[in-house]
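Human:
I keep going back and forth on a fold encoding question. Comparing notes only helps if you start from a blank page. Show me how you would write down a chain together with its backbone fold. Write it directly below this note and I will take it from there.

Assistant:
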Amino acid sequence: MAAPNLERIAASAAGKSQSRDNARDNARDRAGDLAHGGENRSYDIRIGRDGTWYYMGSPIARKPLVKLFSTVLKRVEDGSFWLITPFERGTIEVDDAPFTAVELTVKEVDGDQVLEFRNNLDDTVVAGVDNPIRVETDPDSGEPAPYVRVRDNLDALITRSVFYELVELAEERKIDGQTVLGVMSGGIFFSLGNPEAM
């Protein structure tokens, strides 16, 4: 089945008559159904590791269009990524995480340090219980790959410059007998890894 063009996908994504919250809930239900089978259409859309969206191999230059698509992006139980609208749905490829965290703002709320991230589509998220920071380490290179949860099962890859800012804010703690480097946000300590590896 041929992939529909961008305008058709955009029209479907923009055609929501319900509220954004209700649309997300309904789309989440449909995403759950997809994890157990259903129509599998490919949109020939890919999100690169730097957060750039591509259609048929070419970058999508219109940021408002990318932002629209991101509102209907879901990740289902098998790890696949889908654009799910009230009218149609299809899979897309994601090289790493669908977003990148490109800016860090440090705030104080009720006496606690709060870390707010802005992603490549200008949405913001505050690290906390529902939006944890985690760091994975490449077993071959030893390079850290830091992420912050954006929503549901969707993460933002924290860019290198922002990660360095986190390291500058970090403090050492003993956890299970091991020294780790981490940051506080909203009263929660998030480990960044072994301080010797930073």
The chain is about 20% helix and 40% strand.
